[in-house]
Write a structure and sequence with these properties.
The chain is mainly beta and 120 residues long. It is 0% helix and 49% strand. The N and C termini lie far apart (40 Å).
């Protein structure tokens, strides 16, 4: 079974940094597209960062220049490095993995999320 487990969320001050990890089992992250999303009360779930199996990354204007997404094939882990955190970055961060159609796997897959709170 595919399992995604996020960790690393905590309370940090404005301007601080935090690194989140998503450890995957049952699927190789380098064979799929990986992404991070966040959700907060009163807001639609927001795309934070994505990475293809070839290592190309995509970040929206809200996170570009401050966040970095990466993948460690040895540990099958998707990571999100967050720098210069702002209040609007607070939310439940979830890992998302989308396997290719030809794999025959059912997806996308989601982790349970890890809470990030940026406080003043």
């Amino acid at each position: 079974q595919v399992q995604l487990v996020e960790s690393g969320g905590r309370t940090v001050p404005i301007g601080g940094s935090l690194r989140l990890a998503c450890v995957a089992s049952g699927i190789s992250l380098n064979s799929a597209h990986g992404a991070w999303y966040r959700s907060a009360p009163g807001k639609e779930r927001e795309f934070v960062a994505g990475i293809t199996r070839s290592g190309m990354t995509t970040l929206p204007e809200t996170t570009k220049g401050r966040f970095t997404v990466s993948r460690d094939d040895a540990t099958n882990t998707l990571s999100l490095q967050m720098d210069n955190l702002q209040g609007e970055d607070s939310g439940l961060y979830s890992c998302n993995v989308r396997p290719p159609h030809y794999s025959g796997m059912v997806g996308p897959y989601w982790g349970q999320g890890t809470q990030v709170t940026v406080s003043s």
